[in-house]
């Protein structure tokens, strides 16, 4: 990634009713990053809660859209425009059903895999070519509808592991910002 300002967006749904949901793991990772920077989120006219600071030596804006997940694109595009951040310096942290709970995967571009938050962002910023930090939440058990699964809180067993998962995901964001995609992938993706 170039040395310019990076916009790191965590996806989730606003409000306390959704705070512990699997779908909100992007917000949770951003809260971990805020703890590393120091400070707190402030409302921004772009439609997101933002915090400007330095993370791993890089100038960053952390952002949590104030819209529901499926409408994340407007606030992300508005915040990117305000800070003059190009898609090549946009990092989106989101939940991923197709990755085991606790695993983290990084990629640039690609499809949205049925993730409506990503679809909204791609449409609003005009490209799929932005970085993604994909936080594994696993598949729903049995025949549970994935839409119901993502809107449920993590299980008690998962909640015990969650602080470690969030810490690792925050580390992956920092590595992506400082080392670039390939080095970060080599650090955080398991050998296959």
From TrEMBL:
Leading EC class: hydrolase
PANTHER family tied to this protein: PEPTIDYL-TRNA HYDROLASE
Name recorded for this polypeptide: Peptidyl-tRNA hydrolase
Residues forming the catalytic site: 23
GO biological process, one term: rescue of stalled ribosome
Keywords: Cytoplasm, Hydrolase, RNA-binding, tRNA-binding
Source organism per UniProt: Longimycelium tulufanense
Site residues, Discriminates between blocked and unblocked aminoacyl-tRNA: 13
Compartments, record wording: Cytoplasm
Cited function: Hydrolyzes ribosome-free peptidyl-tRNAs (with 1 or more amino acids incorporated), which drop off the ribosome during protein synthesis, or as a result of ribosome stalling. Catalyzes the release of premature peptidyl moieties from peptidyl-tRNA molecules trapped in stalled 50S ribosomal subunits, and thus maintains levels of free tRNAs and 50S ribosomes.
CDD domains, per the entry: PTH
Site annotation Stabilizes the basic form of H active site to accept a proton: residues: 95
Assembly mode: Monomer.
